[in-house]
Each structure stands twice: as C-alpha cells, then as structure tokens.
Amino acid sequence: MIHNFNAGPSILPKEVFEEASKSILNFNDTGLSILELGHRTSIFEAVLEEARLLVKELMQLNDDKHVLFLHGGASTQFFQVPMNLLNEHETGAYLDCGVWGIKAIKEARLFGNVEVIASSKDRSYTYIPKDYIIPAQAKYFHYTTNNTIEGTELFNIPQTNIPLVADMSSDILSHQMDFNRFGLIYAGAQKNIGAAGVNLVILDKYMLKGIERKLPSMMDYRLHIENGSMLNTPPVFAIYVCLLTLRWLKKQGGVAGIEKINREKAALLYKTLDAHPVFRPTVALEDRSRMNVVFVMDDAEKEKEFQALCKKENMVGVKGHRSVGGFRVSLYNALPLESVKAMTGLMEDFARH
Ligand code: PMP
User: Fold this and answer.
1) Is 100 a catalytic residue?
2) Is the pTM of this model over 0.90?
3) Ligand 1: distance of its center to the CA of 73 in Å?
4) Are 168 and 146 in contact (CB under 8 A)?
C-alpha cells in the first residue's frame, strides 16, 4: 500500500478514482465518456448543479452566497479578487503569514492600496500573529486560513465588521466554521475538493456592489454568476471529480464527521513528534495546522535517513517545501487514519534506533 502525504494535488478517496475511471469510459450509462459530453447538455448541467448544491449543503451556506467553479487555480484569485473588489483609491487589508499570502499581496498591489496589518515574517512564518487591528475603513480583510507550506492554521475567524476574504485552498471543508461570515472564499480544488484545474469561489451578493473598473469578461464575477459558471467551457472533468468527492464527504458525515477524523489524525502525528526529540515540529503549538504537519531534524544526515526510510516504506510526498526544508506530512480529508498510524509507527522505530 502506498501512503500518499502529498501537499497537492493530493490523495482523493479510492471510490472517487473508481467512479471517475468508469465515467471516462461510460458516464451514467449514456454510452459516452464524461470527457466527450457537451458542457451545455442537461447531463453535465446536472453534474454542475449537484456539485453546487452539495457545496451549499456541506458548508451550510445561506441564500445570499453564490457558488462558482472557475478556472485558473487559486493563484488567479490572487488578482481576480482585487480586480473585482478593490477600486484604485481603496485599500485592502492583508495578513502576511507565508508564501501564498505574499503572492496575494503582490497581486493586489496592482489594483489598489494594500495595507499589511500583521506579519509573522520575524519568526520565519512559524506562528500566526494575534494582536492586530483590522482597519475599519479597508474594503476587505484577506487572509489564508491554512498556510500549506509553513504549516500554520487559523482556526478562529478574525473579528471585524469589514468583509472577510479567505484563501481556503488547503483546509476548506476540513473543519466546521461559520462560512457565512465570509464575503468571499476561494480554494483551488486539488486538496480537499477534487482534481486540479478548478477553483471553488463562494461570494456574497453584497461583495459585488461598487466595482468601477472595466473588467475582461472572464475576470468578472458578475458575468460568471449570471452564466452559472458557464461563461465559457468549464473544466468539465475536474468539476465532475469535485462532485464525486463532495458526495464522498457527505457520506463521511459531512464537515463535522471529517473534522473528527482530521483531529484524531493530527493529534496522533503531533503527539508522536513531540515524544521524540529527534523530530522538531517548527510551528508554535497553538497554530499547528491539522492539514500540513511541518517538522525538521537538527541533523542533515538523519533527515536523509528518514527520507530514505519513508521511500522504502512507500510513504510518498513527505519532503518539506524547498523554502522550509525538512518534512511536510499532509493530512487532507481523504488520507486515512491508517496512513497516519503507519507513519507514526515508522517514526517510533526510527527514534528508537
Ligand atoms: N493558496 C494556497 C493556500 C495554496 O496552498 C496554493 C497551492 N498549493 C495556492 C494558493 C495556489 O494554488 P494554485 O496552484 O491552484 O494556483
């Protein structure tokens, strides 16, 4: 058995792969592959509609939220958000907690003013700043809920009266939260939602007022809403894989059900790391991500040994991001508890020897 700890694209449920494989040959007994269906057929429209409704149900979204499936990965949202929400004379407030937030900040500066209201750069992004004030006159407050590379996660929603905009690419649907508190949520699908190639964007009606800038059609949220995510050919197969993954998540008891397992997986892994000084988790205790567990070893030779051991035992995707080094073990929704147990077993053995 291969244990897949990849940071993204990452493991998806086996039943999703099985169903998706069948549908490549014959989708729902139509005699056609999902890859050759017209996107404007009632068959595909049903896929898109069910996926949209499942997002609403699983996230318990209110009727003011629009659910979109868009192209371009989360990185497109780094600029599509300010393009649509920030006029040139206006200010977006941003939290700087790592690589992805920095990219979002860089892109936003192309369209308006950016105020970075707090940063954890001083300690190499190993914690989440706590005592910051969100300026009341800013147009929105943007933050990354889970910092995939650095392994920090913000579990509590920041208190503010201005609209919240969140990049939830790497922890969406992994734990319960009041998703209705956000003006805009975006997430690349390739971790907890489905296959790479599609972005989930959820935005509240009230976010769409006051756009002064002229926008290319494909960048304009309003047009995507009017056209039900079908302004052009949508990423049909990627959306279909999202549908299968969302159905699977519902069967696990939805977000509440998966949160229970996610807590158990992360607790077991951190407990093992903390018990053995050879491993050194890099992140402040209270900000440790339940999705991406980052740790290093103080001895480069030992790191190499553990890498080799992981490889031998079919544990893939554990190498840390080049900017952090060490290891990153990703525990997304579809990763079974058994894989974490296999990893902690290996860690125990390694520490003992
Ligand atoms: N934001 C976060 C938090 C991410 O983890 C990633 C990718 N791993 C991105 C943005 C960029 O996503 P994409 O590659 O889909 O543009």
Assistant:
1) yes
2) yes
3) 7
4) yes
Confidence of residue 36 (pLDDT cuts 50, 70, 90): very high
Strands 113-119 and 315-316: unpaired
Q: Taking the domains of the chain in order of start, what are their residue ranges?
A: 14-251, 254-352
User: Would you say residue 211 has pLDDT above 90?
Assistant: no
**Which amino acid residue places its CA nearest to atom 9 of ligand 1?**
74
Q: Which amino acid is at 198?
A: V
* 43-62 as b/e: b if 16+ CB within 10 A: ebeebbeebbebbbebbebe
Instruction: Report which residue type is found at 337.
Output: L
Architecture of domain 14-251: 3-Layer(aba) Sandwich (3.40)
- CATH class of the domain at 254-352: alpha beta
Q: Is 167 a catalytic residue?
A: yes
Give me the catalytic one of 65, 191, 248, 265.
191
Residues 158 and 134 sit within 8 Å (Cβ to Cβ): yes
Tokens of 99: 């690589």
Tens of pLDDT, residue by residue over 134-191, are: 999 999 999 999 999 999 999 999 999 999 999 999 999 999 999 999 999 999 999 9
Q: In sequence order, which residues have a C-beta less than 8 Å from that of residue 226 and are 6 or more positions away?
A: none
Atom in ligand 1 nearest the alpha carbon of residue 103: 10
Integer Cα distance of 94 and 166 in angstroms: 10
Is the pLDDT confidence value at 294 over 90? Answer: yes
Q: What angle do CA 30, 249, 2 make, to 5 degrees?
A: 90
User: What is the DSSP code (8-state) at residue 53?
Assistant: H
Q: For residue 300, what are its two tokens?
A: 């480069």
pLDDT tens per residue across span 338-350: 999 999 999 999 9
DSSP string, 162-181: SPEEEE-TTTTTSS---GGG
